[in-house]
Automatic annotation (TrEMBL), chain A:
The lineage of its organism: Bacteria, Bacillati, Actinomycetota, Actinomycetes, Propionibacteriales. GO terms for molecular function: magnesium ion binding; oxidoreductase activity. It holds the Pfam family Transket_pyr. It comes from Nocardioides aurantiacus. PANTHER family: PYRUVATE DEHYDROGENASE E1 COMPONENT BETA SUBUNIT (PTHR43257), PYRUVATE DEHYDROGENASE E1 COMPONENT SUBUNIT BETA (PTHR43257:SF2). Its cofactor is thiamine diphosphate. The keyword Methyltransferase does not apply. The keyword Metal-binding does not apply. Keywords: Oxidoreductase, Pyruvate, Thiamine pyrophosphate. This is Pyruvate dehydrogenase E1 component beta subunit. InterPro entries: THDP-binding (IPR029061), Transketo_C/PFOR_II (IPR009014), Transketolase-like_Pyr-bd (IPR005475), Transketolase_C (IPR033248). Residues 4-179 form the Transketolase-like pyrimidine-binding domain.
TrEMBL record, chain B:
Gene3D superfamilies: 3.40.50.970. InterPro entries: Alpha-ketoacid_DH_E1_comp, DH_E1, PdhA/BkdA, THDP-binding. Transmembrane segments: none annotated. The lineage of its organism: Bacteria, Bacillati, Actinomycetota, Actinomycetes, Propionibacteriales. Keywords: Oxidoreductase, Pyruvate, Thiamine pyrophosphate. Its cofactor is thiamine diphosphate. It holds the Pfam family E1_dh. One of its GO terms (molecular function) is oxidoreductase activity, acting on the aldehyde or oxo group of donors, disulfide as acceptor. Residues 57-334 form the Dehydrogenase E1 component domain. This is Pyruvate dehydrogenase E1 component alpha subunit. One of its GO terms (biological process) is branched-chain amino acid catabolic process. It comes from the Bacteria. It comes from Nocardioides aurantiacus.
Amino acid sequence: MSRITLAKGLNAGLRKAMEDDPKVLVMGEDVGKLGGVFRITDGLQKDFGEDRVIDSPLAESGIVGTAVGLALRGYRPVVEIQFDGFVYPAYDQIVCQVAKMHYRSRGRSPMPMVIRIPFGGGIGAVEHHSESPEAQFAHTPGLKVVACSNPVDGYWMIQQAIASDDPVVFLEPKRQYHADKADLDETATPEPLFTSRVVRRGTDATVVAYGPTVKTAMAAAEAAATDGTSLEVIDLRTLSPLDMGPVLESVRRTGRLVVCHEAHVNLGMGAEVAARVTEECFYSLEAPVLRVGGFDTPYPASRIEEDFLPDLDRLLDAVDRSLAF
Amino acid sequence: MSQSREAFGPDLVEVFGPSQRDGGPDLVQLLTPEGERTHHPEFDLDFSGDQLRGFYRDMVLTRRIDTEATALQRHGELGIWAQLLGQEAAQIGAGRALRPQDYVFPTYREHGVAWCRGVDPLDLLGLFRGVDHGAWDPRENNFGLYTIVIGAQALHATGYAMGIQRDGAVGTGDPDRDAAVVAHFGDGASSQGDVNEAFIFAASYNAPVVFFCQNNQWAISEPIERQSRIPLYQRALGFGFPGVRVDGNDVLATYAVTQAALQRAREGSGPTLVEAYTYRMGAHTTTDDPTRYRLSDDVEHWKLKDPIARLEVYLRRNGLVDDDFVADLKVEADALGHRLREGCKALADPKALDLFAHVYAEETEELRHQREGYAAYLDTFEGAR
């Protein structure tokens, strides 16, 4: 048992995966000596060498495209994209090559690759450093997309993503990297990777979140409880495939749903969750599904990012509107 | 700002312009368009009669694959076909220089290289007919699936070569173990970021990869002048590895240069850019109309450099083939053509539910649900599955 941050959990998970399988490689800008700009790969190159922890030229398409070749040769590359807004130069390789290789080869060329992306805002960064591109990847068949929200999940989910024979876009809430600590029991049996989870039980309304907004949702539930409102909070964890089971079960009990994410609301994950809930439990709903998210603007300058990001108050306001129906 | 014009070096357009048709002074050539054997101080080999007859046979049969496929497209049997007419020597020379353990990443026009790797030409047709995305198993012949996005495969080749390095299969001195990778692309692809990034990665890691650019002068309607102000092989120097321009219509020279580049890679000396200087005598694909953008005079000029004709002249002049050999080869080509015609028409359409197959290594529950739902829907129609 150890008490760790998300950054430490991811680092320990990567280390474990590299120890367990010599085919696992880590690639990206500054992942070697520096240990990555967020220090997630700290110490790995020292222990596993430059052939397995590869400092890459500054070229995102090159990083992902060479990882495709390494995967075809039988390796399991884990590539780090330094910031969410820098993934777009690699977008073609991810959606046209990584995502489709298994399909076009009729299963002969698997792509066991993990693309790690620190995502989301709230760290006071300049532009292109705070984006939430998850819907762009979740919309692409052939990719799997997950988002961790806490240190323990970070430790297990990164190992499970690496072990997956499918390519996984792995989203890490960067403002949580060094924020909160949690107890990790390395001997525990983790939950399967592609599952969502109820993280707080409640009866009046369901709140669905993932990544950085799980913490927001939990804070909202605490605050609501002081007013006598009982919120159920679900950490989606997997965005593609979506594990709707716990969500549907919850909404059938509470009759109300608010989905919360940092990404733009228009055509975001919340729209997909809302559509599926409407299809599956229309007669259980007491109110329309509501969404709280980033506005449909580019990510703003950091001095006003708190206005862009969904916070406890905006989430509680949506809960109130849902309860008022 | 009174610096003289000369201080900036020669005008590159002027340097590039006059060499357009003959490839310039650095062109490596071992067989002239007239079928005369010449020699080169760095790239020269002794070829056996069997080897030369083999090249000739490969080129004749590859041209037959191409003409049959073009005809099949005209008859509506293929949706589209990417023609290689005129590029047979570039592809056979490059393809025959490979060893079994080498790996090839093609674009979508490498029918001659596929032939050298033992891929059934019938398997090439499925992609263009629309029954699959490439029927061959890339692991069987170390020949990857065709890549449609221009230049994307140059990075895959480089990464694969980095994998070969990590497997310790470079520079061991064991000819059956040391391996290299070839990335094929065209002159147009040389403008793509991915190709340039591949150059950088390959140079940085000294990866055992040969970049084989078939400069066929045209990227659909865009001429090479629109892609580069310098001869393409000279770009390699800027990335820190050698570049060679070879006569791509000369199978002997293409073989010799590619073999040297592959050997260099296998020994651990890193990447090479080979620019095979050739000409696309046909259209870009069967949907293209090259008469709209290029001069017939150019085409006539390049017909005189035909890669098959020049080798035949050489072989006949040196008594290496006779009329019987050529006649027998024609019979073999006819049989291949017949097999392709009949085989193409017999290629079965995939089943409707095949569209759900192999999206993932581990199928998701939501996709299984979609597949089962569509299956149930199809069952409501008579004979729909």
